[in-house]
Amino acid sequence: MTVRPSSLVASFLLGSLAALSCVTSTPAQTAKPLNEVYQPEAKRLIAAALDDPDGYANLTYLCDHIGKRISGSEPLGRAITWSADLMRRDGLEHVTIQKVMVPHWVRGHESGSITTPVTKPLHMLGLGMSVGTPAAGIDAEIVVVRNFDELKKLGKTGVQGKIVVFNAPYEGYGKTVMYRVVGASEAAKLGAVAMLVRSITPLALQLPHTGTLEYEKDAPKIPAAAISLEDAMMLARLTSEGAPVKVHLQMDAHMEADAESGNVMGEIVGSEKPEEVVVLGGHIDSWDVGQGAQDDGSGIMATLEAVNLIKRLGLKPKRTIRIVFWVNEENGGTGGEAYRKALGEKVGNQVAAIEMDGGAEAPVGYGYGSPGSRRATPNGPAAAPELSDAEQHSLDLLKQVGILLEPLGAGTIRPGGGGSDIEPLMMAGVPGLGEMTNAAHYFDWHHTEADTIDKVDPVEFRKNVASLAVMTYILADMPERLAGHAGPGTEE
Amino acid sequence: MTVRPSSLVASFLLGSLAALSCVTSTPAQTAKPLNEVYQPEAKRLIAAALDDPDGYANLTYLCDHIGKRISGSEPLGRAITWSADLMRRDGLEHVTIQKVMVPHWVRGHESGSITTPVTKPLHMLGLGMSVGTPAAGIDAEIVVVRNFDELKKLGKTGVQGKIVVFNAPYEGYGKTVMYRVVGASEAAKLGAVAMLVRSITPLALQLPHTGTLEYEKDAPKIPAAAISLEDAMMLARLTSEGAPVKVHLQMDAHMEADAESGNVMGEIVGSEKPEEVVVLGGHIDSWDVGQGAQDDGSGIMATLEAVNLIKRLGLKPKRTIRIVFWVNEENGGTGGEAYRKALGEKVGNQVAAIEMDGGAEAPVGYGYGSPGSRRATPNGPAAAPELSDAEQHSLDLLKQVGILLEPLGAGTIRPGGGGSDIEPLMMAGVPGLGEMTNAAHYFDWHHTEADTIDKVDPVEFRKNVASLAVMTYILADMPERLAGHAGPGTEE
User: Residue B20 is part of a domain; what is its CATH number?
Assistant: First the structure.
């Protein structure tokens, strides 16, 4: 999971729309509740999923034998080929690799250290999409701030020529991630020569967390890196002593030419309405550290296994189920955009989009979302949106499905949710669902060397598969369609 | 805190002694309980300690401005000089640096990686006192075992020429640390060319934990390193696939000539029995990673502040209180041995020894120990010893002190305890006390880059100071002496 800066902008735009019109079919008010209609299938799917080792085995192979796979990298190419083969072997139809051009950011060698008043290496990790330093590195005094207000108070006089360190205590990912995303440009506008951000995590164990940044068009591009919580706190302590604190930073980070890559797709073709599609998936790329196990190997392998189970049990949904492994979620979002663009005017046939991109800890349910509703804003996570009558009816239908997920502990259905990859679909009015977990430790490992397969509990993983299989099958088979938002006129 | 191999041997020897004689003064059975006698002083000491910022400020300086300080290193020398100055500034008497020769192990450059069937760097950290590899490194197939039994089953045929990986799940430090301490020689005896040990910690976050090893005299010395939990589990998964897994290991680790170093000591001279000494302290050296904050900067700075508070409040104990910052606890124990040796036959005047070497998390009380009672054995931590009548009486006296520590949550007094540095004293019959905390996270950080000052909570630190001040003052002032064990004829 990442926060796409463009989505942040989109959420601002959406926030200013006075009302959202809705497209939906007429509610069938007297219909039998979904939890009664689909109880037999749900029971079978859950039982099969909880007894199925295949999804976790696939995830283990992906993690151990392919590993980290940032956009443009060789292992991402292998992951894509392997995934398509996997879908074919599983007997999915229309398995294709949809061509997507992706940005190719390369970290290269990097290091940082305190040089004054003590000498000590920093536990650092450059931010994705950051520019590098000059070859000799940057040597500069630092200023440490806890928030944007403190930065503003320093002003150009206090910041010019310095390295700005954002030492913001973790107040939840959605809120604190802003320093990583826009901190570099905010600092650069005041004349900073580089930016260091305290890693966006609640856990201090000398582990830096990377993630993407966004440069503002009109601000100078300065190098930016995450540092461990320990190092950020140490820099704050040292500066509080009053004497100058200096840091050396060297980063080879740079952009190479965009690379050809792809979304991996496969289908179970619908028996009655094959043109109507329930799409689900996660993202196949990861950061260039760890194994991309929770983020988002677990998402793609759990959603695929959910589809496989529906197929293996011989269930034939009326609508088409399409699995997509979107590419380039972490630093660009071009996979999600390309998928939506390729649909053109047929986007209205996407009856629902489900994204799993919050790891495979214990599943708790689904967020039913409007575009931008799961996005961070400078004032914290966006509030849950107000629902139209049609949306409220759809929420009630989803709650009927939720009843079937209660044995998994995954029965919570709430408004607000989605995912970076399905955001372009949601902007075009497609109802979006974000699969939710308890995220007990997700941000301990997120975007680090520690996002490895051992963090994914096999039992919890299977519960996610079970929940996805039930939700996906019912959405593809139920009489009605969910209500979606009509997005703003211009989509991203 | 470390486990000293020589102490392990000592604990075996002691275990075989049928009975331990005791030296103590006659119990004064009708005396007023200590919790009544010393309540006013305890209240004053606790109130002062909880309101005292100085100890934590000293610890912060030690961590941030001196930092890690392994035996033989330049920062250890600075830490010693600074500590002696600190004791003088605080007005302690007889401040001296007692000369101690220490082993000088140097890590040098080191790296490890998986080379077959995938290529991936390992998160590794050489074990203290390990030999290095040849300059070109070692390339070998690995075998992964979970315990010594599995190693034995492999035998020479299975181990010869290979790198042995101990992937033992954490079952408490005292038990699991054996793989780190003796794993290299156990593997070498079967022909292994190197040893990797899963870090001795419950928390997987790609952080390797170092610590000392012991080479057996008759086994070849092979290089040994800790790896992260994640990497150990990955190696186990890869080998379980059946195909050969190979690792490259390169370590420059080596011993240099023993270095001159020292124990730092200072006193409050007793008002009535100055020749009788209550000694307390921790160790001034640390591993060559992190800041040595919990292990054992917190121990030396908390014990010193406890002594300072007694002095500052104008309390004049009958016996002498001596603070000692022992050197070389982590990889040799020569500081504790030198201190005991210098006492010669006067060791009987050491009426009690208190060590704080388990970090400064929330204090819970004290272990009242016999030699070796806190030591790990191959079958887990040694059992609490049986107490003689005199020892039971001493335990009862300590429990009276414990009542005064209850407001701190530190009122637990239990048999069994001590510390590496005071072990030589305890072997000579000196009653030993180990200051105990809840150790909620101690082994998450222990011997790693993450043992930094931010892990020490200022409020918990002050509670430790309070507890130590009360215990130390009462032991130095109370009418009786605690019962101690007479050690075996030959001390280490």
Answer: 3.40.630.10
Strand partners, B376: B381
Strands lying side by side in the sheet with B319-326: B93-106, B254-268, B319-326, B273-283, B350-355, B432-437, B363-369, B412-415
Q: Phi and psi of A418, rounded to 5°?
A: 160, -135
Q: Are residues B69 and B115 in the same domain?
A: no
| CA atoms within 13 A of residue A403's CA, in its CB half-sphere | 12
What phi, psi does B340 have (nearest 5°)? -65, -40
What is the model's pLDDT at position B25? 47
What is the span of the domain harbouring residue B79? 5-105+257-485
**Residue B490 placed within a domain:** no
Instruction: Pick B230's closest partner by Cβ from A118, A233, A454.
Output: A454
Whether B465 and B305 have beta carbons less than 8 Å apart is answered as yes
pLDDT digits (tens, 9 = 90+) for A266-302: 999 999 999 999 999 999 999 999 999 999 999 999 9
How far is the alpha carbon of A118 from chain B, nearest alpha carbon, in Å? 6
Q: How many Å apart are CA B169 and CA B175, to the nearest integer? A: 10
Which residues have C-beta within 8 Å of that of residue A219, sequence separation ≥ 6?
A: A184, A185, A186, A188, A189
- Name residues 122-141 of chain A within 8 A of B (Cβ): 123
Q: Are residues B77 and B116 in the same domain?
A: no
Length in residues, chain A: 492
A204 and B450 within 8 Å at the Cβ level: the answer is yes
List the Cα angle B429/B432/B436 in 5-degree steps. Answer: 165
pLDDT in tens, B216-258: 999 999 999 999 999 999 999 999 999 999 999 999 999 999 9
Whole-angstrom distance, CA of residue A121 vs CA of residue A123: 7
Name the amino acid, one letter, at A228: S
Burial (Cβ within 10 Å: 0-12, 13-18, ≥19) of residue A453? buried
Please state the pTM of the whole predicted model. 0.92
> Residue B231 corresponds to which tokens in the numbers above?
């990497």
Same domain, A31 and A85: yes
Residue A473 covered by a domain: yes
Q: Are strands A484-485 and A22-23 parallel, antiparallel or unpaired?
A: antiparallel
d(CA B319, CA B271): 6
Round to whole Å and give the CA distance between B422 and B371.
Answer: 9
Question: CA–CA distance from B252 to each of A251, A456, B136, B188 (Å)?
Answer: 27, 36, 10, 19
Domain count, chain B: 2
B96 — alpha (psi -120 to 50), left (phi > 0) or beta?
beta
| Boundary of a domain, candidates B231, B252, B273 | B252
Is-catalytic flag, A329? yes
- Half-sphere exposure (Cβ direction) of A441: Cα atoms closer than 13 Å: 17
* CA–CA distance, B316 with A487 (Å, rounded to integer): 79
Does some domain include residue A491? no
* Cβ neighbours for A23, distance < 8 A, ≥ 6 positions apart: A348, A429, A483, A484, A486
**Shortest Cα–Cα distance, A75 to chain B (Å):** 12
Residue B491 lies in a domain: no
∠B225-B423-B103 over CA atoms, to 5°?
A: 45
C-alpha to C-alpha distances, A33 to A396, A478, A484, B243, B453, nearest whole angstrom:
10, 10, 20, 53, 58
- The alpha-carbon radius of gyration of chain B (Å, integer) is 23
List the single residue in A67, A234, A449 with the smallest CB-CB distance to B64.
A234
CB A283 within 8 A of CB A442: no
Counting Cα atoms < 13 Å in the Cβ hemisphere of A19 gives: 4
Q: How far is CA A371 from CA A3, A342, A416, in A?
A: 13, 19, 8
Q: How far is CA B453 from CA A336, B301, B456, in A?
A: 44, 12, 5
Distance CA A134, CA A121 (A): 19
User: Which residue is catalytic, options A41, A186, A214, A329?
Assistant: A329
One domain for residues B91 and B148: no
pLDDT digit string, tens, across residues A10-39: 333 333 333 333 344 445 556 799 999 999
